[in-house]
Each structure stands twice: as C-alpha cells, then as structure tokens.
Amino acid sequence: MAPAQVEVAHPTAHGGWWSVTAHWLTKYRRVWFGTAVSSFLTPLLYLAGMGYGLGALVDSGASGGIGGVPYVVFVAPGVLAATALQVATGETTFSVIGSIKWDRLYHGMLATPLDVRDAVVGHLTFVLVRVASASVVFMLVAALLGTVRSPWGLLALPMAVLGGMAFASCTYAFSAGLTNDQGITLMFRFVVTPMTLFSGTFFPIEQLPGWLQPVAWATPLWHAVDACRAFMTGRVDVASVAVHVLYLLVWLVAGYVVAVRVLRRRMVV
Amino acid sequence: MPYRSSRASEPTASQSTASQSTASQSDGSRSDGSRPDGSPPGAPASGRAPQGTGSLISARGLVKTFGEFTAVDGIDVDVRPGEAFGFLGPNGAGKSSTMRMIGCVSPPTAGRLRILGMDPASQGPQIRARLGVVPQRDSLDEELTVEENIWVYGRYFGLPRSVVRRRATELLEFAQLSERAGSVVEPLSGGMKRRLTIARALVNEPSILLLDEPTTGLDPQARHVLWDRLFRLKREGVTLVLTTHYMDEAEQLCDRLVVMDHGRIVAQGSPRSLIEEHSTREVLELRFDADDHSRHLADVDGIAERVEVLPDRLLLYVADGEAAQGEVARRGVEPLSALVRRSTLEDVFLHLTGRTLVD
C-alpha cells in the first residue's frame, strides 16, 4: 500500500540558522504593517520636531547651525543611528526572554537538530532585517527632506545598521541572562535612553562636561552617529570611520560570543 | 486516515522490524537516514541500533545532578523498538531530567547513554533529527496558526517546504485539527494544543516519540482523545517513551515501565507483572469516621496480607476482597464505606515507596 511514501524521511542536515530566521519572519508577517507605519512616522516626527522646530532656534543663533550645517542636517544622522539602535534593542529584549521563559520557543528549537548558535544567529539575522528595513525607510524620509548632503550618505545606511547590530548582540546577551523582565525596563531607562540623549545624537558631545566625553566615546551609539554624520554631510575622514567600524565590530562579535555562552548555559543544563 | 499509510498497513511493525534490523545493519551508517522503500517506520531506528542489544535507548548508571541535588541517581534503562515505555513516578522523581537527557538537551553527569546506537555527547544533532519531543510544557508559537507551527518546525529539520506542507496536512488530519489549520493557536483549548504539539513532534517522522507528561492538566475527555491518538501511533509501530504520574495512563499505554522515586528505579516490568509482583489481586478500601485511620488497624488485624494507612482510608491488600469484606462485617466493624477493587499501579507505588503518586 502506497509505496510512494518513501521520500526523504530524515533530513540530510538540519535547517540551519536560516530556519530560525524564517520562523521570526513568519511571526513578523502578522505585525509588519504596524511597525512599517511607525518606522516611517517616527523619523518624520523627530526630524520635523527636532530638526525644524528646535532647529529654527539653533539656526537663528550666533552659530547659524552646528558645525556650519543647519540643525536638521546635523540631527538627521543622529536620529538615524538612534532609530537603528532602538529597533535593534526592541527586537532583542522581550522576545529573547520570552523565547526562554514564556512561550519557550527556544526549547522547541533546541529539541531539533538545531544548536544554540543557530538560535542566536537566526534571531539576530531577523533583527538585522528589521533594523535594515527601518533604516532604509528613515533614509528615504531624510533624503526627501534634503538632509543627505553627499553621495557618501548612502554609506550611512550600513553604518547605522552596524551600530544597531553591535548593540543588539549585547542586549541579546543581557536579555538571555535575565530571570524576569524588570532588567529590561531598567536597561531602557538607565542605558538606552541616556545613551540616546548623550551620544552626540542631538548635540555635539563637546557640549558635555569634560569627564562625560570619554563615556560618550565608549558608547557604540556615538561611533555610529559620528560615522553616519560624516557620511551624510560628506565630510568623511577615512581613518576615523575605520576606527568607528572596527570598534562596532568588536562590540558585535563580543556580544555574540557572550550571547551564545549565556544562552547555552541557560538552555543546556 | 492515519498520519502515514505505510504505518497503518504494518500493525505488527515491532515484531517484523526486529528481524529486519540485522539485515539492514550494513547500511546503518547512512547519514541521510532515508528509509528503504516500503519498510515499516521502525526499520531505520532498529537498523541503527547496536547489534545484539536491539535497544533504541540504552542507559547504564545514568546520573544527573544539579549542584548538590541529585535528580537521577544511577538508573539502567533499555527501550526496545516498537514498544511503549513508561517512567512512572511522583513529581520530582527524576522523570523529566531523564527525558531531557534522552532528548539530548541535557548532558548526563555520569553514566553511559546510547540513543539509536549513538552517543548524545558527540552526536546530539544526529540523534535529535530522529526524535520527536512532546515537552511537559508546550513550546508552540501561539501567535502563529496551527499549520504555520508545523511548517516552521519542519523547516528546523531541514525538510523541503513542499514536504513540510504536505505532511502538515496529514498530521493535522491525524491530530483531528484539520478544521483549525488556519486558526491562531493562542485561543485553542489545552487538549488541542497538546495534540498540535504531538503532531508537530511527528513532522520529521521520528524513530522515537518522547512524551513528558502528555496529559497532565487536561480534562478527562481531552485525555481520552489524546490516548486514542497515542494508541494509534503505537499500533503503527512508533516507539513511545513517556513519563506520567497517572497510573491509569501508565496502565493504558505502557507495555513496560519503570517506577521511579527519588531519582532511582524502584521496580520495573509490565503493568500486569508489577501488580502481580508487588501487590495482591484485590484491595478492600475502608473509610471510617476518624481523623486518624491508624486507630482502626486493630479492627482489621489478620484479615489482609498487608494494610496501608492513608489519611482518609485503610487499604487492605487481599486475594479476595468480597471475603475480606465479609470478615470485616462478621467482626462487627462498621466503616462509613467499603469498596472492593482490583490492584493498580498506584498500589504498587504505595507499597514500594510508602507514598501516593498524586498528592
């Protein structure tokens, strides 16, 4: 009876990290419209409110802008990098702890041939898709508003994505070690928000008290902001951009290594 | 329609595979695990089992500790192809820890463990590729639909999209969820979610299906529907390994089981042989109007082979319950109620450990 039953009964290999990304994308399909609208509206609101509202005050001052450009041109790269970071953080906090504790998706994944690395890489790849698409939308809005002053500006896109991912791998590692979601609220309040405010996003870090400037240099966001700003204003210093890229890569790799370790210790017991 | 027609046509798969296993030893090294044409589902599994032992799962001196706490304390287990094997014990007996080790998600602390002839320490992914796992707590994606859950899971095993789609249709039929295929999982009943978890676990056509407390928390009707599905799988030759703290579940489903307590195996055998070995044929339950039932021990002295005192009743282990009840009445002892029943695994457990299974 039914001799044609025999096809590949067992796979030659497992589905790999891509099958994990596919899962997250399947989930995302249900909510993409809402996030697409917000990733379009958020930059618009920021650029309108900060860039033009606040910008009118800044530009009418003695300096006539910041560093010789109108405030909206100054602030756009900052908001781009900050938006990438926000999206990256948002996708690597509750969903990570939820996949461990609440809906237990990771338990399901790790009962298959998949490894902890697949779960982490697959998840982060989905985050990459989210951060990249949010950044593309932002760039379109920013370009339409005339805040991209140079063809170099196109490179601000991968730069912002790298900045977001560098932080995402670290927030992933942090979230994977949490036993409840209070740590996430604290992280947003005491890390993400201050970093967004004081990493050169809305004003140059030279405005900070002297002792705070090294703190700003240490944040991944400042490096992303500074590089994005260089690209979008067309004042590119290759050496400093290279430093920014390298620094962010270090964060990305370190975060990933720790994330895999933390998740393995959590799941494989 | 059964979830795989080749299985339905092989009701005695467990018998027939035993002899085939030696014949197919030569290709036991095949890494793709594909099934020879027309062979019953148990075949690749037994084909891979080490020659001579015939065990799909073999554990010797298996130990699992968490810090100071010893969850599994040196157990020996052998599970044969096509059988339904149970771990029976109260909560905290070490059943789930054992299942997680067999599922290759928890490394053993000590001892030797072989699954499908492979070592979990070095071949975890290869073993997991051929297991179906129904965990104690569902790990479904409740935001997705019923069928999406199976599609997504099948992709974890590297199955092509077209295969996953077709198999999802068959599996949902089997799990009696076809009408709900497009529904989001979250609002479904506990029984439906459990059946979906089982359907999902079958997507890779596993050699062994591991079920950790498959019906805990379900209402009686949902339990019976689930048992019926598991019976079908068993008839079709799927090797089932399950844990339970319900003795009725163990008696219904298991060909062979081990009774666990405090991380150790305290008895093993078929449900019937365990009852024969560790209990009497019948039990007379006497309920008195008393806070402490041990006060009535003297009243029944000498009637039974053995008497167990529970907080709310006395259990008299006897060969003939009616006769014992007559003797109680003859002595003028007047319990509130008296009930004669057959011995169950619950009695075996009570005898072996001095405690009840479900408290």
Provide a descriptive summary of the structure in words.
- The complex is a heterodimer of chains A (269) and B (359).
- By secondary structure, chain A is mainly alpha-helical.
- Chain A has one domain.
- Chain A is built from eleven helices and no strands.
- The N and C termini of chain A lie far apart (44 Å).
- Chain B folds into two domains: 215 residues, P-loop containing nucleotide triphosphate hydrolases (Rossmann fold); 63 residues, Alpha-Beta Plaits (2-Layer Sandwich).
- Chain B is built from 13 helices and 13 strands.
- A six-stranded mixed beta sheet of chain B has the order 5-6-7-3-8-9, sandwiched between helices. In chain B, strands 11-12-10-13 form a four-stranded antiparallel beta sheet, covered by helices on one side.
- In chain B, α6 packs across α7 and α6 runs parallel beside α8.
- The longest helix of chain B has 16 residues.
- In chain B, 52% of the residues are buried.
- The interface between A and B is large, with 37 and 49 residues.
Secondary-structure topology with pairs:
The complex is a heterodimer of chains A (269) and B (359).
Chain A: H1 16-28, H2 32-59, H3 71-90, H4 94-102, H5 105-110, H6 116-144, H7 156-176, H8 182-198, H9 213-218, H10 220-233, H11 238-267
Chain B: H1 5-8, H2 13-23, H3 43-48, E1 57-66, E2 69-79, E3 84-88, H4 95-102, E4 110-115, H5 120-128, E5 131-134, H6 146-156, H7 161-174, H8 190-201, E6 208-212, H9 220-235, E7 239-244, H10 247-253, E8 256-261, E9 264-269, H11 271-278, E10 282-287, E11 306-309, E12 314-318, H12 321-330, E13 337-342, H13 345-353
Parallel strand pairs in B: 3-7, 3-8, 5-6, 6-7
Antiparallel strand pairs in B: 1-2, 1-4, 8-9, 10-12, 10-13, 11-12
Helix pairs in contact in B: 6-7, 6-8, 8-9, 11-13
